[in-house]
Design a protein that fits this description.
Blueprint: E1 2-3, H1 5-20, H2 27-39, E2 45-46, H3 50-63, H4 67-79, H5 88-99
Parallel strand pairs: 1-2
Helix pairs in contact: 1-2, 3-4, 4-5
Length: about 100
């Protein structure tokens, strides 16, 4: 489960690896694979709503992080699912939020 922005974040990460880091070839294939996972229901994309926006805003404010990071933290807490991220800022924010 992920917010809508994940589609663009993943696509951007693929682009970055192909065009900037040069450690990936044929990024379009990976975009298609990701989209296939979404279409197959393996990755559920959540539409924005006021509750997600308001609660993400509060987490961002409390933790001093971006809304983009906060929404992933919020969903992990709200859904009781682990946060799969290499982003240390998100992981620290989740740990801090779980202590409250």
């Amino acid at each position: 489960m992920a917010p809508e922005i994940v589609a663009y974040e993943v696509t951007n990460a693929i682009w970055k690896h192909e065009h900037l880091l040069k450690d990936l070839e044929n990024g379009k294939l990976y975009v298609s694979i990701f989209y296939g996972l979404v279409e197959a229901g393996k990755i559920k994309i959540l539409t924005a709503n006021e509750e997600l926006m308001q609660k993400s805003y509060l987490i961002a404010k409390r933790q001093g992080i971006t809304i983009y990071d906060a929404v992933f933290v919020l969903l992990a807490i709200k859904l009781g699912l682990p946060l799969k991220s290499y982003d240390r800022v998100q992981i620290r924010a989740l740990e801090s939020e779980n202590r409250h």
